[in-house]
Amino acid sequence: MPAAPRPPGQRVILAREGHGASGRIVEYGLPVLRGIAIDHPSLIVVLKGTKTLRWDGHSCRIEAGEAVALASGGLFDVENHPAPDGEYQASWFAWHGDALAAHAPAVGSRPVRDMLLLGAVEPAFMASFEHAREAIGDAVGVPDAIARHRLAELLAWIALRGGHFATNPQASVKQRVRALLGRAPEQDWSAAAVASALAMSEATLRRRLTAEASSLTSLLVDVRMSLALSLLQSTDRPIVQIAQDAGYASPSRFAVRFRERFGFAPTAVRGHQRDGASRPGAA
Length: 283
Known about the structure:
Elements: E1 14-16, E2 20-27, E3 33-37, E4 42-48, E5 50-55, E6 58-62, E7 66-70, E8 75-81, E9 88-95, E10 110-111, E11 115-120, H1 123-137, H2 144-160, E12 163-164, H3 173-183, H4 191-197, H5 202-211, H6 216-234, H7 239-245, H8 251-262, H9 266-269
Parallel strand pairs: 10-12
Antiparallel strand pairs: 1-2, 2-9, 3-8, 4-7, 4-9, 5-6, 5-8, 7-11
Helix pairs in contact: 1-2, 3-6, 4-5, 6-7
Protein backbone atom coordinates (compact mmCIF):
# COMPACT_ATOMS: atom_id res chain seq x y z
CA MET A 1 0.00 0.00 0.00
CA PRO A 2 1.43 3.43 -0.90
CA ALA A 3 2.70 5.45 2.02
CA ALA A 4 0.47 8.40 2.89
CA PRO A 5 2.05 11.80 2.19
CA ARG A 6 3.02 13.80 5.24
CA PRO A 7 3.63 17.51 5.81
CA PRO A 8 7.29 18.52 5.43
CA GLY A 9 9.20 18.21 8.70
CA GLN A 10 6.49 16.27 10.52
CA ARG A 11 7.78 13.31 12.53
CA VAL A 12 6.11 9.99 11.77
CA ILE A 13 6.92 6.33 12.20
CA LEU A 14 7.70 4.83 8.81
CA ALA A 15 6.40 1.29 8.31
CA ARG A 16 6.09 -1.29 5.57
CA GLU A 17 4.14 -4.52 5.94
CA GLY A 18 6.40 -7.55 6.32
CA HIS A 19 9.58 -5.46 6.27
CA GLY A 20 9.91 -3.19 9.26
CA ALA A 21 9.41 0.17 10.90
CA SER A 22 11.61 3.12 11.74
CA GLY A 23 11.43 6.40 13.61
CA ARG A 24 13.40 9.18 15.27
CA ILE A 25 13.16 9.73 19.02
CA VAL A 26 13.29 13.17 20.58
CA GLU A 27 13.21 13.53 24.38
CA TYR A 28 14.03 16.25 26.92
CA GLY A 29 15.15 14.31 29.97
CA LEU A 30 12.91 11.66 31.53
CA PRO A 31 13.25 9.34 34.53
CA VAL A 32 14.45 5.79 33.88
CA LEU A 33 12.07 3.81 31.65
CA ARG A 34 11.75 0.49 33.46
CA GLY A 35 10.93 -2.90 31.98
CA ILE A 36 10.96 -1.89 28.30
CA ALA A 37 10.26 -5.00 26.21
CA ILE A 38 11.88 -5.42 22.80
CA ASP A 39 9.23 -6.96 20.55
CA HIS A 40 11.23 -6.90 17.28
CA PRO A 41 14.94 -7.18 16.42
CA SER A 42 16.07 -3.56 16.46
CA LEU A 43 18.93 -1.21 15.71
CA ILE A 44 19.31 2.11 17.54
CA VAL A 45 21.72 4.89 16.58
CA VAL A 46 22.18 7.59 19.23
CA LEU A 47 22.42 10.99 17.56
CA LYS A 48 22.46 13.37 20.52
CA GLY A 49 23.08 12.72 24.21
CA THR A 50 23.70 9.19 25.51
CA LYS A 51 21.66 6.05 26.27
CA THR A 52 22.15 3.66 29.18
CA LEU A 53 20.71 0.13 29.09
CA ARG A 54 20.48 -2.12 32.16
CA TRP A 55 19.41 -5.77 32.22
CA ASP A 56 20.06 -8.84 34.40
CA GLY A 57 22.78 -7.10 36.38
CA HIS A 58 24.50 -5.75 33.26
CA SER A 59 24.83 -2.17 32.06
CA CYS A 60 25.87 -0.56 28.76
CA ARG A 61 26.25 3.09 27.79
CA ILE A 62 25.85 4.14 24.16
CA GLU A 63 27.37 7.49 23.25
CA ALA A 64 26.28 9.90 20.53
CA GLY A 65 27.45 8.55 17.18
CA GLU A 66 27.31 4.92 18.37
CA ALA A 67 24.80 2.15 17.64
CA VAL A 68 23.39 -0.87 19.47
CA ALA A 69 21.53 -3.97 18.21
CA LEU A 70 18.75 -5.35 20.43
CA ALA A 71 17.34 -8.88 20.14
CA SER A 72 13.60 -9.52 20.31
CA GLY A 73 12.42 -10.74 23.70
CA GLY A 74 14.87 -8.59 25.66
CA LEU A 75 13.76 -6.58 28.69
CA PHE A 76 15.67 -3.43 29.64
CA ASP A 77 15.66 -0.44 31.93
CA VAL A 78 16.44 2.50 29.67
CA GLU A 79 17.78 5.93 30.55
CA ASN A 80 18.18 8.51 27.79
CA HIS A 81 20.54 11.30 28.89
CA PRO A 82 20.09 14.64 27.06
CA ALA A 83 22.97 16.59 25.54
CA PRO A 84 23.99 19.85 27.27
CA ASP A 85 21.24 21.71 25.40
CA GLY A 86 18.64 19.48 27.10
CA GLU A 87 17.71 17.31 24.10
CA TYR A 88 18.18 13.61 23.39
CA GLN A 89 17.83 12.21 19.85
CA ALA A 90 18.14 8.73 18.36
CA SER A 91 17.05 6.88 15.22
CA TRP A 92 15.70 3.33 15.40
CA PHE A 93 14.93 0.57 12.94
CA ALA A 94 12.95 -2.62 13.69
CA TRP A 95 12.67 -5.69 11.44
CA HIS A 96 9.20 -7.24 11.11
CA GLY A 97 7.73 -10.48 9.77
CA ASP A 98 9.92 -12.43 7.39
CA ALA A 99 12.39 -9.62 6.74
CA LEU A 100 15.19 -11.59 8.41
CA ALA A 101 14.47 -14.97 6.82
CA ALA A 102 15.99 -14.12 3.43
CA HIS A 103 19.28 -12.91 4.95
CA ALA A 104 21.71 -15.74 5.73
CA PRO A 105 23.87 -15.05 8.81
CA ALA A 106 27.45 -14.15 7.97
CA VAL A 107 30.08 -16.79 8.68
CA GLY A 108 31.62 -16.13 12.08
CA SER A 109 28.83 -13.90 13.36
CA ARG A 110 26.93 -14.88 16.50
CA PRO A 111 23.24 -14.49 17.38
CA VAL A 112 22.59 -11.28 19.29
CA ARG A 113 21.71 -12.19 22.88
CA ASP A 114 19.90 -9.29 24.54
CA MET A 115 22.13 -6.62 22.96
CA LEU A 116 25.31 -6.04 20.96
CA LEU A 117 27.18 -2.74 21.16
CA LEU A 118 28.18 -1.89 17.58
CA GLY A 119 30.40 1.07 18.37
CA ALA A 120 30.86 4.17 16.25
CA VAL A 121 28.74 4.44 13.11
CA GLU A 122 30.74 5.57 10.10
CA PRO A 123 29.11 7.63 7.29
CA ALA A 124 28.69 4.59 5.02
CA PHE A 125 26.85 2.68 7.78
CA MET A 126 24.58 5.67 8.37
CA ALA A 127 23.91 5.95 4.64
CA SER A 128 22.71 2.33 4.63
CA PHE A 129 20.51 3.11 7.62
CA GLU A 130 18.90 6.05 5.80
CA HIS A 131 18.45 4.00 2.60
CA ALA A 132 16.63 1.32 4.60
CA ARG A 133 14.40 3.98 6.18
CA GLU A 134 13.64 5.40 2.75
CA ALA A 135 12.76 1.93 1.45
CA ILE A 136 10.11 1.21 4.06
CA GLY A 137 8.75 4.76 3.87
CA ASP A 138 8.28 4.82 0.08
CA ALA A 139 6.26 1.82 -1.08
CA VAL A 140 5.58 3.48 -4.45
CA GLY A 141 9.09 4.46 -5.45
CA VAL A 142 10.99 1.54 -3.91
CA PRO A 143 9.85 -1.96 -5.02
CA ASP A 144 9.80 -4.84 -2.53
CA ALA A 145 12.88 -6.45 -4.08
CA ILE A 146 14.92 -3.27 -3.56
CA ALA A 147 13.54 -2.82 -0.05
CA ARG A 148 14.66 -6.34 0.89
CA HIS A 149 18.11 -5.60 -0.52
CA ARG A 150 18.43 -2.40 1.51
CA LEU A 151 17.33 -4.11 4.72
CA ALA A 152 19.84 -6.89 4.06
CA GLU A 153 22.58 -4.28 3.58
CA LEU A 154 21.84 -2.89 7.02
CA LEU A 155 21.99 -6.40 8.48
CA ALA A 156 25.36 -6.86 6.76
CA TRP A 157 26.74 -3.91 8.74
CA ILE A 158 25.65 -5.61 11.96
CA ALA A 159 27.30 -8.83 10.77
CA LEU A 160 30.56 -6.93 10.24
CA ARG A 161 30.42 -6.10 13.95
CA GLY A 162 30.14 -9.82 14.70
CA GLY A 163 26.40 -10.36 15.23
CA HIS A 164 23.16 -11.41 13.56
CA PHE A 165 19.55 -11.68 14.64
CA ALA A 166 18.11 -15.16 15.13
CA THR A 167 15.38 -15.80 12.54
CA ASN A 168 13.43 -18.40 14.55
CA PRO A 169 13.81 -17.62 18.24
CA GLN A 170 11.88 -19.86 20.61
CA ALA A 171 9.09 -17.51 21.61
CA SER A 172 7.47 -17.86 25.03
CA VAL A 173 3.69 -17.71 25.39
CA LYS A 174 4.16 -14.22 26.81
CA GLN A 175 6.03 -13.12 23.67
CA ARG A 176 3.43 -14.74 21.41
CA VAL A 177 0.64 -12.92 23.24
CA ARG A 178 2.52 -9.60 23.00
CA ALA A 179 2.99 -10.11 19.27
CA LEU A 180 -0.72 -10.84 18.81
CA LEU A 181 -1.88 -7.87 20.88
CA GLY A 182 0.63 -5.61 19.14
CA ARG A 183 -1.09 -6.15 15.78
CA ALA A 184 -4.23 -4.42 17.08
CA PRO A 185 -3.58 -2.87 20.52
CA GLU A 186 -6.72 -0.73 20.27
CA GLN A 187 -8.93 -3.83 20.07
CA ASP A 188 -10.97 -4.90 23.09
CA TRP A 189 -9.21 -8.25 23.48
CA SER A 190 -10.84 -11.10 25.41
CA ALA A 191 -9.15 -14.18 26.84
CA ALA A 192 -11.27 -16.31 24.52
CA ALA A 193 -10.09 -14.42 21.43
CA VAL A 194 -6.43 -14.59 22.42
CA ALA A 195 -6.59 -18.26 23.36
CA SER A 196 -8.33 -19.12 20.08
CA ALA A 197 -5.71 -17.22 18.06
CA LEU A 198 -2.94 -19.17 19.83
CA ALA A 199 -4.78 -22.50 19.45
CA MET A 200 -5.12 -23.23 23.15
CA SER A 201 -7.84 -23.19 25.78
CA GLU A 202 -8.43 -20.20 28.06
CA ALA A 203 -7.37 -22.30 31.05
CA THR A 204 -4.11 -23.26 29.34
CA LEU A 205 -3.47 -19.64 28.36
CA ARG A 206 -3.96 -18.44 31.95
CA ARG A 207 -1.83 -21.26 33.34
CA ARG A 208 1.03 -20.68 30.90
CA LEU A 209 1.04 -16.91 31.50
CA THR A 210 0.95 -17.41 35.27
CA ALA A 211 3.97 -19.71 34.96
CA GLU A 212 5.75 -16.86 33.17
CA ALA A 213 4.77 -14.37 35.91
CA SER A 214 2.35 -12.52 33.65
CA SER A 215 -1.33 -12.11 32.78
CA LEU A 216 -3.37 -11.08 29.77
CA THR A 217 -4.51 -7.87 31.45
CA SER A 218 -0.98 -6.74 32.34
CA LEU A 219 0.33 -7.61 28.87
CA LEU A 220 -2.44 -5.67 27.12
CA VAL A 221 -1.79 -2.59 29.25
CA ASP A 222 1.97 -2.82 28.67
CA VAL A 223 1.62 -3.31 24.90
CA ARG A 224 -0.68 -0.29 24.74
CA MET A 225 1.63 1.86 26.87
CA SER A 226 4.67 0.77 24.84
CA LEU A 227 2.89 1.86 21.67
CA ALA A 228 1.94 5.16 23.27
CA LEU A 229 5.51 5.82 24.40
CA SER A 230 6.85 5.11 20.91
CA LEU A 231 4.29 7.43 19.30
CA LEU A 232 5.06 10.18 21.81
CA GLN A 233 8.81 9.83 21.24
CA SER A 234 8.83 9.41 17.46
CA THR A 235 5.82 11.29 16.07
CA ASP A 236 4.08 14.65 16.32
CA ARG A 237 0.67 13.00 16.58
CA PRO A 238 -1.66 14.74 19.08
CA ILE A 239 -1.89 13.04 22.46
CA VAL A 240 -5.65 12.66 22.09
CA GLN A 241 -5.09 10.65 18.91
CA ILE A 242 -2.35 8.58 20.57
CA ALA A 243 -4.78 7.70 23.36
CA GLN A 244 -7.25 6.42 20.77
CA ASP A 245 -4.53 4.49 18.93
CA ALA A 246 -3.69 2.79 22.25
CA GLY A 247 -7.32 1.80 22.83
CA TYR A 248 -8.46 4.57 25.19
CA ALA A 249 -11.51 6.64 24.32
CA SER A 250 -10.85 8.83 27.38
CA PRO A 251 -7.61 10.89 27.26
CA SER A 252 -7.74 11.33 31.03
CA ARG A 253 -7.95 7.57 31.59
CA PHE A 254 -5.09 7.11 29.16
CA ALA A 255 -2.99 9.67 31.06
CA VAL A 256 -3.64 7.85 34.35
CA ARG A 257 -2.59 4.51 32.87
CA PHE A 258 0.52 6.06 31.31
CA ARG A 259 1.60 7.65 34.58
CA GLU A 260 0.99 4.38 36.43
CA ARG A 261 3.22 2.55 33.94
CA PHE A 262 6.08 5.03 33.54
CA GLY A 263 5.85 7.43 36.49
CA PHE A 264 5.27 10.63 34.51
CA ALA A 265 2.61 12.22 32.31
CA PRO A 266 2.45 11.71 28.51
CA THR A 267 3.15 15.42 28.01
CA ALA A 268 6.53 15.03 29.75
CA VAL A 269 7.89 12.99 26.83
CA ARG A 270 7.62 16.02 24.57
CA GLY A 271 9.13 18.42 27.06
CA HIS A 272 5.96 20.07 28.29
CA GLN A 273 5.83 21.28 31.87
CA ARG A 274 6.40 18.41 34.30
CA ASP A 275 6.25 18.48 38.09
CA GLY A 276 6.31 22.27 38.10
CA ALA A 277 9.43 22.61 35.90
CA SER A 278 9.67 23.38 32.21
CA ARG A 279 12.24 21.74 29.98
CA PRO A 280 15.46 23.69 29.40
CA GLY A 281 15.06 26.42 26.84
CA ALA A 282 11.26 26.47 26.95
CA ALA A 283 9.59 29.84 27.06
